[in-house]
Amino acid sequence: MRRWAITIFLFVISSYSYAKAQPPRGIVWSKDGNAYYSVDAGKIIKTSLPSFKKETIADKQDLTIPESGKSLYVRNLIVYEEVQKILIYTNSEKVWRYDTRGDYWIYSLADKSLYQLGVSLPPSSLMFAKISPDGTKAAYSSRHNLYSEDLRTHTITQLTQDGTDKIINGTFDWAYEEEFGCRDGFRWSSDSKQIAYWQIDATGIKNFLLMDNTDSIYSFTKPVEYPKVGEDPSACKVGVVTVASANTVWMNVPGDAVQHYIPRMEWVPNGQLIVQQLNRKQNESNVYLLNPSNGASQKIMTESDNAWIDIKSRWDDDNPKGWDFINNDKAFLWVSEKDGWRHIYSISLDGKKETLLTKGNYDMISLNAVDQLHGYVYFTASPNNATQKYLYRVSINGSAKDKGAAEMITPIAQKGTHNYTVSPNGLFAAHSFSSHDYTPVSEWVSLPGHAIIKAGTEKSVLDKESAVEMIHVTTADSVTMDGWMIKPTPFDSTKKYPVVFYVYSEPGSTTVEDSYGSAGNYLFQGNMSEEGYIQISLDGRGTPSPKGAAWRKSIYRKVGILNIHDQAEAAKKIRQWNFVDTTRIAVWGWSGGGSTTLNLLFQHPEIYQTGIAIAPITYRLSYDNIYEERYMGLPQENREDYINASAITYAKGLKGNLLLIHGTGDDNVHYQNTELLINELVRYNKNFQLMSYPNRTHSLGEGAGTRMHLSTLYTKYLREHCFGGGR
C-alpha cells in the first residue's frame, strides 16, 4: 500500500540490461555510459557526453509501419548495441498500476528493417519482451505463458503450456506486483539457450469480486485474485526452460512453496541462479545458489529480524529484482539493517566473506550506481537531516584508503533534496535539486567532481516568498517528528487560524521532504494560505524515514496504534500554539492516510473536528497478506492487534464531520472497507457524508471529470466544515 498523489510514471528501459530484472526507469544509457538515447519528434536520438552532440539513430520514416503508413508511437525502448537492434514498446495498456502490456517492434540498425513481434498473438498482450544476448531470438510473456521468437524466421515457440488466469508464468499476480514491485518475471541466460522464470500458482487464492453497475444494463463482476491477510499466499517457484526443447527444470528452493516468497531472482554470471527467499512473516531471509541443470540448491546466507526484512524495491525501486555483482563476479552487494542502520555490504559469492561498505550511524536511502571500473558504489543518504537527500560514494572493497568513510559528492552548500541518475561508468549524472525554499533545477554534471557540464534552462534561486517552513515537533514522549508547515499569508500572530493536517503515517511512505512543491495540498481549489489556513504534515515513528531501523520498525504490530498516538500527541503540542484555533482542526489523507484520518477522528474527537478520508482501509483484516503480515504479523497469532488497529473498532467515537470518499472499482483497498465502516456508523447513528465513484480504482483517476469533481468536493467540504481565516 502506497501513498497516492499526482504522479507521472516514466517507464523507460536501460540499454545495458539484456537479461536483468525489470529494467531501470529514467534515462536510456548506452552500455559504456558515455551517451544516452531519447525520442524526439518521432525520431530516436543518441546524445554523446559530455559534448551533448546529437545523432539520429532512427528517423520518423524508419519507424513507419509499411502496411499502414503510420509512424510508431514509442512508449519505451531498449537499445541492444552489440547486436544493432532497438526494441520498441507501443500500444501499451494498464495492468494494475502501470501500463506493462502492449505491442513490441524490432528495428534493425543494420538493414533498417522494422517488424512486429508476436503477430499471431492478441494485440497489446505482450509483456516484458527481451532480445537474447546473442541477438537471434526474443522472448516475452503473453496471457501468462512464455514464448520465444526466432528473429530471422519469425517462428514463435510457446515455452510454457499451463498458463491460465491463475497459473502465471513470466510475470506476477496482483499481490507480488503491489507489495514487492515484481512485474517482469523472466530472465535470459547469458548463452541465450535458457530462460529462468517465476511461476505463480494462484489457484488457491480466492477471487475478490468488483461489481460493475455502469458499463452494462446488467451488472457484472470483475474477479481479482486477492489474498486477504491471514489467507495463504500464492505458491511460487522458479523454473529454467531450455528454449530449443521447451523443457522446464524446476528449482529446488527448500521449504513450502505456499508459505514463502521469492521476491528476487537472477542469473549469476557463472551460469548459476541466485534467489532470495522470505518466509511468510517476512522476518527471515535466505539466499540460495541454484543449479539450473538439476535444480539443486545451496544456502549461502541467512538473516532474521524481530520485525521484518525490507526487499530491494525499498531502496532501489527502479530495479527491484536485479542483482549487483562486483569484483569480477566473485561477490555481490547486499543491503541490510542488521546493525540498526540500512547499510551496504559486499558478500562473497559463497557467502563466507562479508564486508560493511557504508560505515556509520546513518541510513543509505537509495543505491544509485555501481562503478566497477573505478571501484565505487554511489548511493544517497542524509546523516544529519532525514528530510533531505545527498549523493555519496564508497569504495566497493571497503579499502583502507578511505577506511570505509563515505565521500560526499553533492556540494555541501546545496541544502535540500538531490536526485541523481548516474551513468553506468560513474562519470556523468542527470541531477536535480530543490528545497522547500529553493526552486527546482535540473542539470547534467560530471562525477565525482560534480562539475556542471550542461546547465538547466532555469537556475535554482531562493524563493523569498515561499511560505513553507520545515519544523520539528517533540511530543510528551520525547519523540521528535519532522514536519512542514505553511502559514496563512498575510499572517497575524495575534489571531487564531484553523489547522489542516495532511497524514499518511504508515510504513509505506513519508509525507515530509525538504523539496520544492512537496508541501501543500494538491486537491484544494484555490490558495489555502490566502484563505487563512495553517497546513501541517508530520512524519512519526514507523514511517520509512532515514532515522535508523529502530525508528522504522517500532511500529511492528502497531500500525494503526503507534502512528495514531504520535500524530495525536504532536497535534496536542500544536494546539498549544497561541495562533491555532483549537475549534477548527481538520485532518485528511489517502489510502493509509485515509485510515489514519479515520483513527484520529474517531479516537481523538477532542482534537480533530473534521476529517476527509479517501480510499481508506477501515478493517485491517480486509487488506492483502503481504503488506499486513509484514508489518503486523500473522493474524492467526495476534488477531487482537488487527482489531485494535482498525478504524471500524472506534467508529462510535465519531463526533465531528466526516467526508468518506472511495472508488467502487478499487482493486487495491476494496470498497468493501467503506461499506464495513458505513455499517458501524449507521449502528451508532453517526452522521457523515459519502462520495462513491463508480468503477474508479485506488487512484480515482479514471473517467471524464473525476479529478475535477473530487477536487471540487474536497474543497467545498473543507470550506464549509473548517472555514479559513484568522479571528
What would you note in describing this structure?
Among the domains are: 1-128, no CATH class; 468-721, Rossmann fold, CATH 3.40.50. The chain has eight helices and 43 strands. The strands form ten sheets. Strands 36-37-39-38-40-41-42-43 form an eight-stranded mixed beta sheet, with helices on both faces. Strands 13, 14, 15, 18 and 19 form a five-stranded antiparallel beta sheet that branches. A four-stranded antiparallel beta sheet has the order 1-2-3-4, with no helix packed on it. It has 727 residues and is mainly β. Strand 26 and strand 27 form a beta hairpin.
Q: What general outline do the C-alpha atoms trace?
A: globular
CATH 4th-level superfamily of the domain at 468-721: Alpha/Beta hydrolase fold, catalytic domain
Structural class: mainly beta
Biggest sheet, open or closed, and with what strands and sense? Answer: 8 strands, mixed
How many angstroms separate the termini? Answer: 40 Å
Segments where pLDDT lies below 50 for 5+ residues?
2-24
For the secondary structure, the number of strands is 43
